[in-house]
Amino acid sequence: MSTERIIGIDLGTTNSLVAYMEDDRPVVIPGEDGSNLVPSVVALDEGDQIIVGNGARKYLIETPERAVYSVKRLMGRGVEDVQDELKLFPFRLADDLAAGEVLRIKLGNKTYTPPEVSAFILRQLKRNAERYFGGPVTKAVITVPAYFNDAQRQATKDAGRIAGLDVLRLVNEPTAASLAYGLDKKETATVAVYDLGGGTFDISILKLHEGIFEVIATNGDTHLGGDDIDNLLIAIALDDIQGDLGLDVRRSGEAVQTIRKAVIDAKIALSSNDQTTLDIELPGGKRYQRTITREQYEQLIRPVVDRTVGPVRQAMKDAGLTPQQIDEAVLVGGSTRIPLVRKLVEDQFQRTPHADLNPDEVVALGAAVQADILSGGSEATKEMLLLDVTPLSLGIESLGGGVVKIIHRNSTIPESATEHFTTGVEGQTSVAIHVVQGERELAKDCRSLARFDLKGIPPMPAGLPRIEVKFLLDANGILHVSAREARSGKEAEIEVQPSYGLTDEQVEGMILESFDYAEEDFAQRQVIEARNEGDTIMAALEKGRKSPAWQQLTSRERADIGKLEDALKAVMPHQDYQAIRSAIDALNQATMHLAELMMDSAVTSALKGKTMETADVGEGPASPHPIAKAEIKS
Amino acid sequence: MRAAHYCQECGKVQPPAPVDYFSFFGLPPKLNLDTAQLERDFYALSRKLHPDINAKAHSREQEWSLEKTSQLNDAYRTLKDPILRTEYLLRLEGVHLEEQSKAATDAARQSGTAKKQVVPPDLLEEVFELNLQLEELRMDKKMGESDPALEQELQNAKRSLTTKQSAMLEELTAAWNQWDAIVERTSNGESVLESERASARDRLLAILNRRTYIRNLLREVDEVLEK
């Protein structure tokens, strides 16, 4: 490959997208079905094949135990963190989960960790990009909610690795959006990005200055989004159904998913209409109907929408700015289509917010811009540089369970801090350190990131060793720790126990497992492509038979073509793509003369040696750019 | 002299070296500082050192880039803020400021030991009165009673403290000037008595301590009022 392509991925709660910088504009790469959005739904079909996206959605209703959605809510979290989600989402966790263990989700009779499920989505996006480029893609920038903590970021990076992607950078979603918006703007401005998606909320305040995008403050809630509105509406519908129809369908996964689909449609309708009607056919034939006005709807969802106010105020306070000092407010995320949300943003910032770019796509477009910057920059991005911050303070648990903050929230990353530790007992050779993330004063109220054991300290009297520990938050917001004993200069050994993450060994194991999928995928794709090609050549042949050229062939030639065509038809339904390919090649050879005869005599000489397929005389499903034929080297 | 952060010829990041934040920006250890210029330097250095710019460099240079950018960010964050800058300079001068920190306050509260802190003399009377009022209001709130008059008094005290807080920046500037003059004379080769240096340092420290003291008081008032 001449150039190394880096793609930009928005791995969303509800939908995921992949984008790429083409010349000087970022573009979203569509899937095979022509759709830009890949629903973040993963299903396992009866043949234990993984299905992602639109194809997986029908499983949500038909066999909900074989499908999962909104898995982003589970990334980097432990079983004790997700009790609230379990009440609201049909996540089926493995039965044998221990506290502190990485979650595993049941899909049919198999179980997968959230990073593995996310990896299935990422692999689909990777595949879409490979199909678009006609070549392999191995490097990506992936966006994450700005308010994601270390464990959630690490889980996202792991998902990338499992999917066979080298994740060059995790970019915060609102920051990515500002990159997409800021492409043509070179002036100085202070911008607020309000990003309310399917499951996460972020607010970021940025200063734009001659191509530098400096985040001043960020805040948010990684469990607040359109999903919460859906769940609220579902709960009301379920109550109504029980009250009015005397039916309790809470336990019926199928009914709940049917209701979920209906309330989402209603939610969307209420963004443009003054009222809408829910009309749901329940299992057993009963019908639930209800008309909702915009006013009723807004009253219902106001508490959810109002939860964004606290983070907005905190971010403004941290930035030291008043609403008057904000030059522009930008809306990102599908949930900002809700008029009530727009009104809230307007009130908070006292100006009409921008929503010029599609709120579903803007984050992926920004990821593509960042990918372009990392690949060395183009004319459009050469002046651009992103300076982001860490959303949460990093601290160490002190004696008595308090927290000593070592890196404060809203510090520009990368950022490092060095702390000194010593021993409390004579001859002590190891020291335990507990690293937490969050703003609370007690370690137990913060997020536990990891416990480190500093080992190999030379035995000395208590208090004498000086162990210097360096904490480094990299440009992805991920923590790295190194330590050395200052007196001996010896590098101390660090044993990291991530509190809610996968170990390196586990990730390696998953990468190996995923190779099986990749190979299966690869074989499956080869078959599909060979069949498409077979269809193309047979369609071309059909056309050839009707042309005068057909009569110019010898009867022997015509008979040969007929036999080879039958042979191709016979192998087409089989899974052996090589057999299909050889049948195509044979037929191509046999029809070469026909193809030549069909050409205008003036160009015949120029086209000598062309085959039926490449002469492009057929009307088959030729694949024009952008969906070029995939040519994947494994 | 600014440290050599990148090669003037080829633009490559150079290995990180342990330098103080002032030297990192090529600045003398003075407290009056042109923050607009500092921001311009920060942006210019970011454009050379940031990991995004060096994403395609050799892996060793990428490590240096990460290390140097974290130094840059730390230095910029510290120097652009007048209080952090002053605290940092005092630390460079070997002065410890830990006693006034929130963590120390909490630790003292938890362990019941008296915190090492001196009430600024001019605040003695006000603080004595304020502590009584705070205690009274805490008791009231515990009993579920309200005392609007007392709350009003606390609001007034809060306003007076806030005014003192903002006046502090002026005092700080005067102390900065005293310090900077000493640095200037030193760099001109003039002799400076250690006692002069110490007195300028103590003046800075006194202002910072006073500021922290008032800030903690304000926090306490807010806590009681908001309960």
Q: What is the CATH level 1 assignment of the largest domain in chain A?
A: Alpha Beta
Structural class of chain B: mainly alpha
Q: Kindly state the mean pLDDT of chain B as a whole number? A: 81
Q: What amount of the residues of chain B lies in strands?
A: under 5%
CATH-assigned homologous superfamily of the largest domain in chain A: ATPase, nucleotide binding domain
Instruction: Report the uncertain regions of chain B.
Output: none
Which ranges of chain A are low-confidence, i.e. pLDDT below 50, for 5 or more consecutive residues? 612-634
Quaternary assembly: heterodimer
Q: Please work out how many helical segments of chain B DSSP would assign.
A: 8
- Taken from the alpha-carbon principal axes, the silhouette of chain B is flat
Tally of strands of chain B: 0
Indicate the overall shape of chain A. Answer: globular
* Architecture (CATH level 2) name of the largest domain in chain A: 2-Layer Sandwich
Assign a percent range to the helix content of chain B.
55-70%
User: Largest sheet of chain A at a glance?
Assistant: 6 strands, mixed
Number of helices of chain A: 17
Radius of gyration of chain A: 29 Å
Describe the overall structure.
- The complex is a heterodimer of chains A (634) and B (227).
- Chain A is α+β, with helices and mostly antiparallel strands and 634 residues long.
- Chain A has four domains: 6-224 and 307-387, ATPase, nucleotide binding domain (Nucleotidyltransferase, domain 5); 226-306, Actin, Chain A, domain 4, CATH 3.90.640; 394-501, Substrate Binding Domain Of DNAk, Chain A, domain 1, CATH 2.60.34; 507-607, Substrate Binding Domain Of Dnak, Chain:A, Domain 2 (Up-down Bundle).
- Helix content of chain A is 36%, strand content 24%.
- Chain A contains 17 helices and 26 strands.
- In chain A, strands 1, 2, 3, 4, 10 and 11 form a six-stranded mixed β-sheet that branches.
- In chain A, helix 3 packs across helix 4, helix 12 (504-546) runs parallel beside helix 15 (577-590) and helix 14 runs antiparallel to helix 15.
- Chain B is mostly helical.
- Chain B is 68% helix and 0% strand.
- Chain B is flat, with a radius of gyration of 23 Å.
- At the A-B interface, helix 11 and strand 18 of A face helix 2, helix 3 and helix 5 of B.
